[in-house]
Amino acid sequence: MRRKTLTQYLIEQQREFNNIPAELRLLIEVVARACKSISHAVSKGALGGVLGSAGSENVQGEVQKKLDVISNEILLEANEWGGHLAAMASEEMEDVFHIPNRYPKGEYLMMFDPLDGSSNIDVNVSIGTIFSVLRCPDNVTEATEQDFLQPGTQQVAAGYAVYGPQTVLVLTTGHGVHCFTLDREMGSWVLTQENMRIPEDTKEFAINASNSRHWYPPVQRYVGEMLDGKDGVRGKDFNMRWIASMVADVHRILNRGGVFMYPADKREPDKPGKLRLMYEANPMAMIVEQAGGAATNGKQRILDVQPTKLHERVAVFLGSKNEVERVTRYHADA
Ligand code: AHG
Ligand code: MN
Ligand code: MN
């Protein structure tokens, strides 16, 4: 069977449905190329001198790993000169990155989590990259943070790469979710799964259970009922998985269902959760919804949340529809 490459797929989509304009196609191809470089750096590990801490902190006060910084630079360098972007923003940069004046500017804004799952880098567990694409508002010549603060419903594309046993790129432009596998010999991304669908029901959940004593009652109730298994109100046994790389947990859920949770908790009552809305939760929520799943912050659809700042945090419940609806209902009941 002759397989389709990412380039072929994007051109065909444009021809058949007129839904991927040339500038967006360029953007996606450039991001895919950057992910290829990151995958290459990741796979070198100790041999490439890429492991360990960079000796700096990001705006969230987290210690940056060398690969956090390397991946951020790869994405910036790949994307700054092509003329497809008006500006970029990243987990690893406090402020908006402006396209240098020597390059033309384009009509899109991009945000990314260059390296997701940083705690897994040095122990050789799957990690990834997440990105979200918005349109730059009309007549904006120098995009500011304000221009990025659009709800997730406005995303024109979202995707993630997983650097795991295989390197894959999962992509949506609002017409289903498709998975491409990196063919290292050929250097190309090959379409390997079309129209991924998340089963509506599941017997698998993902949460960092070490925080259970800090959870609020709706999460206590929901997880408690799953832990009660066959003997409890749910009447069935559940299995648990927690990789601590959102990309890898979400990828499992896209493939076989499940529910992923990173709730707000009592440790820091002022914080609405750990994960970042703009470059973690929103792109993943778009992908999950496009695959037939659901994503809420416990109260409302994540994609409807109006962001108020670039590095805003949000509680996340996403995955199999019936489970996300249930845990959201428990929040409403409380
Ligand atoms: P990042 O490495 O980009 O900071 O993101 C890590 C996130 C997410 O990928 C993962 O699900 C979660 O943090 C893990 O958190 P815990 O260490 O609290 O389990
Ligand atoms: Mn992350
Ligand atoms: Mn990160």
Tell me about this structure.
The protein is an alpha+beta fold and 334 residues long. It has 2 domains: 188 residues, Fructose-1,6-Bisphosphatase, Chain A, domain 1 (2-Layer Sandwich), CATH 3.30.540; 130 residues, 3-Layer(aba) Sandwich (D-Maltodextrin-Binding Protein, domain 2). It is built from 8 helices and 15 strands. Strands 4-3-5-6-7-8-9-10 form an 8-stranded mixed β-sheet, with helices on both faces. Helix 2 packs antiparallel against helix 3 and helix 5 packs across helix 8. It starts with 5 loop residues before the first helix and ends with a helix. It is an enzyme of class 3 (hydrolase). Its cofactor is Mg(2+). This is Fructose-1,6-bisphosphatase class 1. Its main location: cytoplasm. Pathway: Carbohydrate biosynthesis.
List the helices and strands and how they pair.
Blueprint: H1 6-17, H2 22-44, E1 53-57, E2 63-65, H3 66-79, E3 85-90, E4 97-98, E5 108-116, E6 127-135, H4 145-148, E7 157-163, E8 167-172, E9 177-183, E10 188-193, E11 204-206, H5 217-227, E12 239-240, H6 246-256, E13 259-262, H7 277-290, E14 294-296, E15 316-319, H8 321-333
Parallel strand pairs: 3-5, 11-12, 11-13
Antiparallel strand pairs: 1-2, 3-4, 5-6, 6-7, 7-8, 8-9, 9-10, 13-15, 14-15
The structure holds 2,5-anhydro-1,6-di-O-phosphono-D-glucitol and manganese (II) ion (MN) (2 copies).
Pathway: Carbohydrate biosynthesis
Main location: cytoplasm
GO biological process, one term: fructose metabolic process
